């Protein structure tokens, strides 16, 4: 039976794709390039994301053409197979990068004496458990945890008001800072563009007509939450600390100082954030399995368990140390991710046009 | 051999055993399962011997990474 996810779940999934992995280390490079004006970067990216959503989903009256896309039983055209190949590459690289980021974070902050292979195994077990349950379960778990994480991020400016210093935003942005902000956008865009992951389940969205607004609101919420995080990091920590710290968001939440007895609130917030990253990874794993299922026309998750372990070990083997992973995330992914995203958008538009043409039947104009 | 490798091997043996015993795997699917299990075992051995495959990352860093370094090199 075809699994269905609601528009609310799609919205939370998209927001999760944008914000959960981004908050780990990305603000470091964003602030390093953009300086104290880096808070403008999410605002510069948002219109591009909105434009992409409008481009991908098109008019509401043509939404029905999306329903049959990427179904396992259906015969896939040449363009669909091409799209799936690049999409698979995109998902694999994102999964490996996010998993290693999570492992490095846990190893350096929470469990410093535990070997990273053990952390990887336990994380992969959790991710596989969620992914094997299917799309609907992953979307439901994501909705629960993302609402809590979103609430925590939204109240962050209130609970950190006593730590914020407005002078950290000085000097204010001028036209001379525009070039460094554009460079910062280049380094940040591929991470926020990960909202494209939702495209693989576009046929599972119910009702399909409201898919565009759901993805749009997801992009707005995700970017908005990233904006809050980056503003608070600059306001509380200042430019110099953010650009030197490996995990600036963790240092930020360590600064929460509400009362004398609530001094380890950071662990509570990490306990809320880690499940959202696990659900993102589970969705990526589900997407990888879905791509393989379309290729082989067999809807099964029997191979997911050993395959997840292979990806887990690859995430350890291909990065010599955490520094190499950070360099890969900042430098390589910004270009590689951007190229893949542009290819995916282009191919999706072609597939959508062909699908609409088939739906309207021969003899009708395709406009 | 660390505890992680032993755990992964045991888990995989149990998983494949349950799959075969319950006749969940079709005949043509078995070879794929064995291939994947073999790949996992190879990965654990590589990890146990501390052999890294960072040649992939080095290649990507030298190609796509250098594109980003043209924009900004910190």
CATH level 1 class label of chain A: Mainly Alpha
The chain pair forming the largest interface, with residue counts per chain, is: A-B, 36 and 38 residues
| SS elements, strand count of chain B | 0
Q: Mean pLDDT of chain A, nearest integer?
A: 89
Q: Report mean pLDDT of chain B, rounded to a whole number.
A: 89
Give a written overview of the molecule.
The complex is a heterodimer of chains A (367) and B (74). Chain A has helices spanning 7-19, 22-34, 40-57, 78-110, 116-132, 135-159, 178-192, 211-236, 239-244, 248-254, 265-296, 304-317, 322-360. With 367 residues, chain A is an all-alpha fold. Chain A has one domain: Amino acid/polyamine transporter I. The longest helix of chain A is centred in the C-terminal third of the chain and has 39 residues, at 322-360. Chain A is globular and about 65 Å long. The two termini of chain A are 33 Å apart. Chain B is mainly alpha-helical and 74 residues long. Chain B is 78% helix and 0% strand. Chain B has three helices and no strands. In chain B, 16% of the residues are buried. The chains are: A mainly alpha (367), B mainly alpha (74). Chains A and B meet through helix 2, helix 5, helix 7, helix 12 and helix 13 of A and helix 1, helix 2 and helix 3 of B.
Summarize the structure.
The complex is a heterodimer of chains A (367) and B (74). Chain A has 367 residues and is an all-alpha fold. Helices cover 70% and strands 0% of the residues of chain A.
Helix-strand blueprint:
The complex is a heterodimer of chains A (367) and B (74).
Chain A: H1 7-19, H2 22-34, H3 40-57, H4 78-110, H5 116-132, H6 135-159, H7 178-192, H8 211-236, H9 239-244, H10 248-254, H11 265-296, H12 304-317, H13 322-360
Chain B: H1 3-21, H2 27-48, H3 55-71
Keywords:
heterodimer, A: 367 residues, mainly alpha, Amino acid/polyamine transporter I, 70% helix, B: 74 residues, 78% helix
